[in-house]
């Protein structure tokens, strides 16, 4: 099996009113480093096992799937929005999902498509936006929306487009960063300026969302929001864990389409 990129992809950024062109350009500059675990995306490589655990647990519970099955997502259509280099798209495909992965950066899509092809994975990579997919009438059982909402130009419009992409009974998994002094200290000062885990300018603290704010955006689209779950980093073990009590920096949330 081979991955595929959208043959109509042109330019460097897909257009859409929720796309922040500056954000797209910033990450396009380092797109070649997506799969380097010691490169500028090192924090995502470290966080990825915890993100994948959150996605799998919530999807299995929501659809009543067999926990621990080799391909529990088989028969489900999954959209990975803001897929970057495919760090989540590839594991989702291995879990059996029919994966469509999109990004506003053409360079990210080319990087992701090349890596997935080398891994023998069949993933439909597209250089496009959530709005364009919604306008085309695309529908999905699962939407994965990891570390994206803090980079878009209009959160309400963006999540509205995502809602229109969900099948009745579908689920969307989101994760982002809380707008707290602790998040500023750890995610910006620590990760960007001290540890150099991320390029300086990767995040804008003013665009971070508190859990109640994200839940409000979700519910205004007509979806039902879950309670947030924190991603908590242990500096001694250098590992992340899920924690329902601590959402002070990174956190995740599920959104459900209860229509139909």
Structure description:
Strand 8 (229-234) and strand 9 form a beta hairpin. The model is unreliable at 1-13 and 192-196 (pLDDT under 50). Helices cover 34% and strands 22% of the residues. Strands 1, 2, 3, 4, 5, 6, 7, 8, 9 and 10 form a 10-stranded mixed β-sheet that branches. The chain is globular and about 40 Å long. The protein is α/β, with parallel strands linked by helices. It is built from 8 helices and 10 strands.
| Residue fraction in strands | 15-25%
Question: Main β-sheet: number of strands, strand sense, barrel status?
Answer: 10 strands, mixed
Distance between the termini: 35 Å
Count of alpha and pi helical runs: 8
User: For the residues shown, what is the average pLDDT?
Assistant: 86
Which runs of at least 5 residues are low in confidence (pLDDT < 50)?
Answer: 1-13, 192-196
Summarize, please.
The chain is α/β, with parallel strands linked by helices.
Q: What key attributes describe this structure?
A:
Rossmann fold, ten-stranded mixed β-sheet, globular, alpha/beta, 260 residues, single chain
Describe the secondary-structure layout:
Blueprint: E1 4-5, H1 21-28, H2 42-63, E2 77-81, H3 89-94, E3 98-103, H4 106-118, E4 124-127, H5 130-135, E5 140-146, H6 155-164, E6 166-177, H7 181-194, H8 211-220, E7 224-225, E8 229-234, E9 239-243, E10 250-256
Parallel strand pairs: 1-4, 2-3, 2-5, 3-4, 5-6
Antiparallel strand pairs: 6-10, 7-10, 8-9, 8-10
